Amino acid sequence: MAKTVLVTGGAGYIGSHTVLQLLIGEFRVVVVDNLDNASDVAIERVAELAGERGRNLEFHQIDLRDKPALEKLFASKSNFDAVIHFAGLKAVGESVQKPLMYYNNNITGTITLLEVMSAHGCKKLVFSSSATVYGWPKEVPCTEEFPICAMNPYGRTKLFIEEICRDIHRSDPEWKIILLRYFNPVGAHPSGYIGEDPRGIPNNLMPFVQQVAVGRRPALTVYGTDYSTKDGTGVRDYIHVVDLSDGHIAALNKLSDAKIGCEVYNLGTGKGTSVLEMVAAFDKASGKKIPLVMAGRRPGDAEIVYASTEKAECELHWKAKYGIDEMCRDQWNWASKNPWGYGSPDSSN
Ligand code: NAD
Ligand code: UFG
Fold first, then answer.
1. For 155, which of 17, 150, 310, 346 could close a Cys bridge (C-beta 3.0–4.6 Å)?
2. What is the pLDDT of residue 198?
């Protein structure tokens, strides 16, 4: 029988792409999302892209902190085989301004989810952690054994949730938990039908570049040109969102391994790309020239961050397939077909 997976935050950027890969992989999927940072149009499009298998998708608009609603959902299902937990707030700057909102949403939401899972005997979890827990790493590539730290309240929620998961597993070894540390997810599904649609001014590089390309913003500000890197700009490990989504299927499969406890894996490509290299790749893919404004460093930014991919390759049998040219091609395909994301000029800012 097909496995049923609960996906929290499944209407969001990474969630929607992962739900599609799950449906294609013949899983049944139940999505829970409060739509705070997403549109239900994403769910409709995922169902369409999945064709016949779109029938295996169910959506519930629920806030994870609404325990009775979550209880009711779990009680109405015979059981979930596993949960993939994406739901959370993710804007670093906002988390500095509104730490309580971040702790409440991300930590309370996760604890509520874990309590309900435990009460219903569902003890398999894949959690969205982040490379942010490596801070400014002393060396690269970052391996999973590196010390972890938090640079801001958002990062602290990831660090705390990782620790909570380790404690839960120590207290009850029946729990099987995989913590996935994402590097920098970019791009979109090659159909151009689903992609990233941030609300407000984008914090991250590629959503900003995309909005400059479609004329919504005048220029990209490049934060920092004096780093000790090939061209002075920050270096990151960009990973195609479809590769990242496939990493979740690999993690789900790994949860069936009798020996797995609470384990961490990096999901990255292992390659470092500078801001200027990424912009050049996007210029090439789009045929546009993104106007640049050179500026000082953004507070809290690390210089060079990229992943060691060895552990995921060996143990999850997963490896990213796409390079930055494909990432930029698909980012542009999505942006040019949906310049206002899932909304319209009136609904966006
Ligand atoms: P996203 O904002 O597009 O998706 C998160 C989804 O969770 C949204 O659809 C939002 O509506 C939902 N949500 C938030 N709080 C909720 C709550 N209390 N109850 C129910 N739904 C809720 O973000 P994303 O980029 O898809 O990120 C998914 C996860 O991956 C997040 O946990 C994020 O912190 C993590 N992550 C993202 C990145 C990145 O660069 N995108 C990097 C590392 C880790
Ligand atoms: N950058 C610019 N201009 C912008 C935005 C970004 O020059 O307008 C630069 C940054 O300075 C950095 C690089 O582009 O050098 C990447 O920046 P992002 O904001 O896209 O990504 P970060 O690596 O800084 O951080 C993001 C998330 C973190 C997460 C991390 C790893 O914001 O929460 O990816 O997943 F931890």
1. 150
2. 85
Give the residues surrounding ligand 2 with Cβ less than 6 Å away. Answer: 92, 130-132, 154, 182-184, 203-205, 208, 220-224, 234, 236, 275, 298, 301
What is the average pLDDT across 228-245?
A: 98
Specify the pLDDT at position 346: 75
Residue whose token pair is 């890969």: 21
Burial (0-12, 13-18, 19+ Cβ within 10 Å), 78: exposed
CA 128 to ligand 1 center in whole angstroms? 8
Which of 220, 293, 298, 304 should be mutated for ligand 2, with most atoms under 8 A from CB? 298
Q: Is there a contact between 194 and 20 (Cβ–Cβ < 8 Å)?
A: yes
303-317 pLDDT per residue, tens: 999 999 999 999 999
Interval 183-225: pLDDT, tens: 999 999 999 999 999 888 999 999 999 999 999 999 999 999 9
Closest CA to 85 of 14, 154, 184, 159: 14
Which residues contact ligand 1 via a Cβ below 6 A?
9, 11-15, 33-38, 63-65, 86-90, 105, 109, 128, 130, 182, 184-185, 204
pLDDT at 77: 87
| Token pair 């015979």 in the structure block, residue | 78
| Average pLDDT rounded to a whole number, residues 327-331 | 98
349 CA → ligand 2 middle, Å: 21
Which candidate, 131, 190, 197, 203, places its Cα nearest to that of 325? 190
Rounded Cα gap, residues 241 and 330, in angstroms: 10
Q: How far is the CA of 198 from the centre of ligand 1 (A)?
A: 11
Residue 347 pLDDT > 80: no
Consecutive H or E run containing 162: helix 153-171
